[in-house]
Amino acid sequence: MGGRGAGRRLLVGLASLTPLAARTSGASPSPPPATPTATAAPSVAVATPTVTPSLATSPTPTASPTAIAFGEATQTESALDCKFFATDPPIQCTTVRNDPRVSGKYAATVHTRPWSADASHEAFVPWGTARLVNAGGVWEGPYSGIFATGRGNIITTWYTGSGGYAGLSYYETITASTTGPGWVAVGLIFPGSPPTG
User: Fold this and answer.
1) I want to staple 93 with a disulfide (CB 3.0 to 4.6 A). Which of 43, 82, 170, 176 is the partner?
2) What is the CATH number of domain 3-24+53-191?
3) Domain residue limits, the chain
4) CA nearest 189: which of 62, 65, 67, 66?
5) Considering only 8-17, 72-81, 93-102, which range has the smallest mean pLDDT?
6) What is the spatial distance between Cα 81 and Cα 184, in angstroms, rounded to a whole number?
């Protein structure tokens, strides 16, 4: 099952993570309301702007300072600044990782299989192909994941490198940040091919 309708359901689900992340960002509480004055001001209706999920973004990302080498393999951490569109590819991100080999421009196709109890309570399985490009080469591979309202989103990708990254693989898990808005990822770059079985 794919297409624009499925992509829109994914976008709504992904956009629903933003308020949760904002609540956990450690922002200062709002100041107490001002003391009322003796003169009442006339009430004015103020329109509340709507946020279009297809344009939802996270703040400029930052990555942890150091990648960790394990012989020929390197563990990476990253942050993603993503935008969601109603056109192909529907997900487009700029990634900032602590290893420049896996920083760059990210785009992904989206397919979903949703289940819902009602309009505000949904779960789905997303899958597709992700592509990460930078000056050194290209990473491309299949991803899949799970989303559930109130539980968040987890996406895993197996990339194969080409260009300057030929002969390397990159495995990555992306989740919604629990310490602030946006997305975070942990990955491992290693020599050889992704598993096939």
Assistant:
1) 82
2) 2.40.350
3) 3-24+53-191
4) 67
5) 8-17
6) 9
